[in-house]
Amino acid sequence: MDAGGSELFESYEQDFEAIKVSITERLNASGSQSGEVKKQTLRAADREIDEANEILQQMEMELLNLPQGSKTRLQARLRGYKSELERVKQTLKRAQSTSRSTSDRDELLGGISGGVDLDAASMDQRTRLLAGTDRLAESSRRLQDSHKIALETESLGAGILTDLRGQRDQIVHTRNTLLEADSNIDKASRTLKGMARRYTYSEKTQKNKKKMRQVYLRILRKHGCTKCGLL
Fold first, then answer.
1. Share of the chain above pLDDT 70, in %
2. CA distance 125 to 81
3. What percentage of the chain has pLDDT greater than the value 90?
4. How far apart are the C-alpha atoms of 82 and 73, rounded to whole Å?
5. What Å distances lie between residue 205 and 187, 194, 202, 216, CA to CA?
6. Which residue has the higher pLDDT, 17 or 157?
7. What is the four-CA torsion angle of 27, 28, 32, 38, rounded to 10 degrees?
8. CB distance 217 to 230 below 8 Å
9. Is 96 left (phi over 0), alpha (psi -120 to 50) or beta?
10. Of the candidates 136, 147, 26, which has an alpha carbon nearest to the alpha carbon of residue 92?
């Protein structure tokens, strides 16, 4: 984007000016035409007016992305383009009205051009209907594709939720196993401590008994009981 505004907006402006010139040339040419040739020229101008409308819509969308300073100035230019296109539309309507009046007069006078114009109008209407049908089919296909993507996304989300639930169950099971292992370790620790205490007590008892025996022997020796069976 340059200092004056959007490069894309300026590109739309060039397209609009080019198509406006083409519309004006067709309208000017239709003034010297008649019959089916004039109708074809006016239909072509009508199609180009539709294209010009689309260009103006693209301009409006581009303005949404611009800073406020550039947006205000370009909005004024856009309003000018809309006014120009509206004047062109009015010119086309007057030319179409004149063409229809001439066609009706020729038909009343029995001219053969009426039948030709009617066939051409039917073909143009059929072409428009076919184009509308194609656009409708394309829209339907896009809608079906979007629906398919939505279903696939929903299925993927359900699969992820199922996996998460399975992982949660595994985590809960692992946690319960660890808690049970901690409980067993505590029990084993208490048992080992008890066994250690009992062993320590037994060892001390044996030592005390040995000391008492030694004291008792010394007493006996002191009193001359050397022939006792205990010696």
1. 75
2. 29
3. 32
4. 15
5. 27, 16, 5, 16
6. 17
7. -20
8. yes
9. alpha
10. 26
**Token pair in block for residue 172:** 């809960």
Contact 164, 171 (CB under 8 A): no
What would the two tokens of residue 130 be? 């076919």
Tokens 């299925």, residue?
Answer: 155
pLDDT digits 0-9 by tens, 80-113:
999 999 999 999 999 998 877 665 555 555 544 4
Largest CA-CA distance found in the chain, in angstroms, rounded? 173
Residue type, 221: R
Tokens of 209: 């008994």
